[in-house]
Design a protein that fits this description.
Elements (H helix, E strand, L loop, with lengths): L4 H11 L6 E4 L2 H11 L4 E5 L10 E2 L7 E4 L2 H11 L3 E3 L8 E2 L3 E5 L3 E12 L4 E7 L6 H7 L4 E6 L7 H10 L4 H20 L2 E12 L4 E3 L3 E4 L8 H4 L9 H8 L3 E4 L4 E5 L2 H13 L6 E4 L6 H12 L6 E8 L4 H14 L6 E7 L2 H11 L3 E3 L3 H14 L1
Parallel strand pairs: 15-17, 17-18, 18-19
Antiparallel strand pairs: 1-7, 2-4, 2-7, 3-5, 5-6, 8-9, 8-11, 9-10, 11-12, 11-13, 14-16
The protein binds adenosine-5'-diphosphate (ADP) and magnesium ion.
Adenosine-5'-diphosphate binds next to strand 2, strand 4, strand 8 and strand 11.
Length: 395
């Protein structure tokens, strides 16, 4: 799960991470009011979307920049009016862009230097990693590729947590000395506490800035949260903005389905993440492209299967469906009744290949056969993949 920058700022305040004051606004008037409350001169208007690269982005109507530094509250109101209700395209939004329905009005600071700072969960080292760079405000992937020597890494032992010597080490590698190093250490520690207590999998500050009056402040924020920990993060869940998410994934999450939308045209309905991945692999191996990853889980109910099938059928890119079920815990007949229930609600106008194996398979097959639906049954995984790829190509 992700959150907006203005919400990240609320977490910064709660955990004592230094950041310029900011207020969110949904209309130009609200933006003007917020700007007067913060007070000029020196304000920044920032489009709130779940994507980075806003500063260099362009609105679909041609207006340039999702981040504007202005002098007066009147100018802030004017710029907010130009952003709200418009679609911003950045290198992270894809060509369709993202609708801006909120802007953040924040105090602008005079920057002397921008840095990059992130804390993330690093599976490779079974620990947390801190990534810092002197090249802030830039695309970090590009820095990593072209000037890897400008990126510093520090691993944090999960049992020990971030130690102050590590903060000083990072500050020193960024060239920060004296009071600036102390301030940086304080900010890193506060951010670490936020990251750990809020079950983040990533916090990224790009840029972390040094101001002309020698303050170390976080100017931007990107957060990812560990979805498996959301049950104990009620405040974080309350910040969820489903309008920023793939509608297919939002629907799937309501039914507890593990669903990830992809770009291909063959939908997969599978039980078990491993089987789902091998199903995607074998579709590709036979020349097809999967439209999604979908694991209905080991003990899915008829309602979940019906919901899964409806999400698949609601995707206009889907040109064929492959159901691949191995009934270990799952009863094949539940899958069969779910498919039929969904197909009755949403008319099935595309090829459907079903491969059932395992628990109660004969009953499942009989249920499907008796349904009168145009279903192609397959004997094994290879047969199933070949049949659905051929059917989609022929259509
Ligand atoms: P994005 O990464 O989406 O482009 P940022 O929040 O990083 O958005 O803003 C882009 C640039 O705008 C920053 O690199 C910084 O130079 C400037 N900026 C952002 N917030 C402020 C602020 N409060 N005061 C002054 N400059 C800012
Ligand atoms: Mg940024």
């Amino acid at each position: 799960m992700n959150i907006h920058e203005y919400q990240a700022k609320q977490l910064f305040e709660k955990f004592g991470v230094a950041t310029p004051k900011g207020i969110v606004a949904s209309t130009a008037e609200e933006a003007g009011k917020a700007a007067r409350e913060i007070g000029g001169p020196g304000l920044v208007v920032k489009a709130q979307v779940h994507a980075g690269g806003r500063g260099k982005g362009t609105f679909k109507n041609g207006f340039k920049g999702g981040v504007h530094v202005v002098d007066t509250p009147e100018q802030a109101e004017d710029i907010a009016g130009k952003m709200l209700g418009q679609t911003l395209v950045t290198h992270q939004t894809g060509p369709e862009g993202k609708l801006v329905s909120k802007v953040l009005i924040a105090k602008a600071v005079d920057i002397t230097k921008e840095y990059y700072f992130a804390i993330l969960f690093d599976r490779g080292s079974s620990s947390h990693a801190i990534i810092a760079s002197t090249e802030g405000g830039m695309n970090i992937e590009e820095v990593a590729e072209k000037t890897p020597e400008k990126i510093f890494k520090e691993f944090v032992n999960p049992a020990l947590g971030l130690q102050s010597y590590q903060c000083r080490k990072i500050a020193a590698s960024l060239g920060l000395r004296g009071p600036l190093a102390n301030q940086a250490t304080k900010l890193f520690t506060a951010l670490w506490n936020l990251y750990l207590k809020s079950d983040c999998s990533l916090v990224e500050i790009n840029p972390l800035a040094i101001t002309t009056d020698n303050q170390v402040v976080a100017l931007d924020a990107k957060f990812n949260f560990d979805d498996n920990a959301l049950y104990r993060q009620k405040d974080v869940v309350a910040m969820r903005d489903t309008t920023e998410e793939d509608p297919r994934e939002v629907a799937a999450s309501e039914f507890g389905l593990n669903y990830i939308g992809l770009d291909g045209n063959i939908a997969c309905l599978v039980n078990g993440a491993g089987l789902a991945m091998s199903t995607m692999d074998i579709i590709k191996f036979h020349g097809g492209e999967p439209a999604n990853f979908l694991d209905v889980g080991g003990g899915a109910t008829k309602e979940q299967v019906t919901a899964a099938f409806k999400i698949i059928l609601g995707d206009p890119n889907v040109k064929g469906i492959l159901v691949n079920i191995f009934g270990g815990i799952m009863d094949c007949n539940i899958i069969a009744t779910g498919i039929i229930a969904a197909a009755q609600e949403v008319s099935l106008g595309i090829p459907l290949v079903v491969r059932l194996e395992g628990n109660n398979v004969e009953a499942g097959k009989a249920t499907l056969a008796a349904s009168g639906l145009a279903i192609t049954s397959a004997s094994d995984l290879t047969d199933a993949a070949q049949k659905i790829v051929a059917a989609v190509k022929a259509a």
